[in-house]
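Hi L., both proteins are below.
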Amino acid sequence: MDGKNSHDQKNIVIIGGSFATAGIILGRLRAKLPKQFRIVIIEKHTHLHYMFAFPRAIAVGGFEEELFIPYDTVFTSPSEGVVITAVATKITPTFVELDRDISLSTLGPSSVQENTITTRTITYEYLILATGAKHPSPTNFNECDTKSAGVRAIQEYRAKIKRATSVLVCGGGAAGVEVAAEIREHYPQIAVTLVHSRVRYMPGYGEGLHTEVKRILDKYGVEQILGQRVVIPEGGFVDDGIMKTIKTNRGIEIECDLQILCTGLTPNSELIAELSPGSVDPITKFVRVKPTMQIADENFPNIFAIGDVNDFPGTKTARSAFAQSYTAARNILYLIRSRDTAGQLVLFGWVLTLGSWFARNFSSYNLGANRAWGALGLKLSATTKHM
């Protein structure tokens, strides 16, 4: 025995197994938790999706297996923490409901009789919402619950790109810019048009970044239409590989046989909206949070929201999510020790994924997936990448 009785422990529940959850919450919170606490992650995917590299993987093959990292090695024992493969369907003030039954034995040591008992509820002392946001594929592949499904989806998308002769990329955020640049760099025979609703790229980062992004896209021959939106047909684009004419809201016509949506994100905030309607912006659907990452409801000081799901100011980047995770972890420890909470540190600079030309200079070929493997307790190798 390691001195902890899992049935007597208090749970810190994290809904969503994001990279920020693995790298910061687990790395810092797990090591410093008092023995009477443990971490419970509720996540529908069997593997972490390292989606920062998805836009590159759909163009450049050979490393997609490295982008799905198993959760089953995160904890050494149930008394330290557990990962439950399920979907959280409801948050109450004291417990989380699941979409399926799980055996109580999953949650730790129990008697033979108890092993036959199941539950759909997980109690919590503190809760962190890290559910992220819905992104259009190929920047997310959220519909793929297993590694094999995710790897297959990336390979199939790459095959579609290779068959195309003219690609329309809708949206000039970090993902759209990378997708456009990657396709033109690796398949120069394919025409690529990028339509962006803003007149500048990455407007939150100043004129210098816009100028650099435009220079690189120009270098690779990406046709750019700024300050306009693509008129998306009712029901969405038909993915049939047939050349069609797509118009912008100002009437510009674009001939293309593949359309890639890289526009917008929809926060997965429904669980908080049901528990605390005032904590969710009725228009943007982002969860309103304090600088401490606690939700903006004085009735629930033990509930936090981090990453893409919240309304914290600034562009949604991995760096921002990491900092928010650290803040939430630190403040949970403060609360456990009956101390005051602390606010979010101000971040300066930018961290964006801007194509393989950027990755080669500032990162690895898989855009840092190795670090995600390490955060989940594994070393990426020729053997482990198949796990």
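That was the first. Here is the second:
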Amino acid sequence: MHPQSARGFLVQWQAATVRLAMEDPSGVKPIHIKYSDGGTEHCTLLIKVQLSLIATFKLLGLDMLIACRTAPGQSWQNPVERVMAILNIGLQNCALEREQTTENMEKLLKRCTSMAEIRKAAEKTPELVEAWTSSVTPVLNMIRARYSRLKLKGEPIMVMDAVTEAEEEEVLQVINSLFPAINPATVTKSQAENDATFTEWVQQHCRQRQYLFQIRKCDNTACCSVPVLPLDKIVWLPDPTLDASGDHYLPLDDVLGTDTDDTQRPSAQLSHKRKHASTTAAHDYFMSDVLEKQQKDPGLFTAQHARALVSCQECSKPRVIYSMRLLSSRHQTTLAEALSDADYTCGSPILEPSHALASTVQVRLALSCGDPVELAYYRAPFGRQDLCSHCGGTNGNISSSLLAKFKTVLPCCQVCVATGKKNIVARQYGKEK
């Protein structure tokens, strides 16, 4: 809510985390676990999020930091979400309206439609910062007073002041000292991967999974301070691992301290199970009916009916939006507006059932993040021919030797090749159907 902070939510979030840990009467714990929803501000696959977590790890001098996020549509399992119903009580019968400022300031504010625009206007008119702060302060004080009267399980709700610029700057200084060539505000995945300092530090201290990002101290005292806990107690949180039957997961005690990977996580296994299970077993509500209809009539999902693209916020792979009819300009605008207000993930519908275009445009519901990019993507006019079919990254290559043997060969990047993946092929020449 404070306009002078244009550094972004991530920096403020980590600065607040550091303050809470420092103010804990029992002291800073050597291992810190963060559990959040799957929104873009907490997506542990994003470089900006990883940088902010590394800063928290360093500022608190932790032995280990474990950042978990919920799978798509499962944020209700996050314990922190349980307080939302109570917070809503505090806002009942409450009108949130800021106070009026001077006439000149009001004219400037009316031209702004977002906090980003207010910050931009404040750069040209510095007095706007003070005017905005004085305007919203009464509202903030009222919300603070209402929330402070609430309790959860007998414990009063704690209301924090907004982090200061000094606290935000402290987070940024840690990032800049570790990775001088990286700008945390504009860094991209490719820039980070090409930064030797960042990649070496991550390889030595971090472990990344689809829903988990972990950081721990190394045994090099020139790099990290001596840990509070013994090194044999600072072990990676293991990944879900199937038992011998393949139908159940092993208990934590059986896999703790072992070397695991996340290839057996539920979302990675979903596509395989769908091929051997009933068509509606893994779905609820309207999705089961739509999925069953899609599987009975797959003729919609061809390059001929590919109309647009949507990217999964989890795996970043492009997924094709299909429609039997060409979309009018009005429908294209309506679809673009709907997609801008929602975060799509593989296996979920792109629109709510009540949306006007819900029966007109569809994506494949049988896809999961573990599935490759669809063949229809490459055959559609908007498809990139250098996009890796496995990870959705650029610089995908097609082997000329495979093209001589198969009619269909999908691109594969060098990163995926290094992990043992190969070009996806189909329709071998000279082979009968």
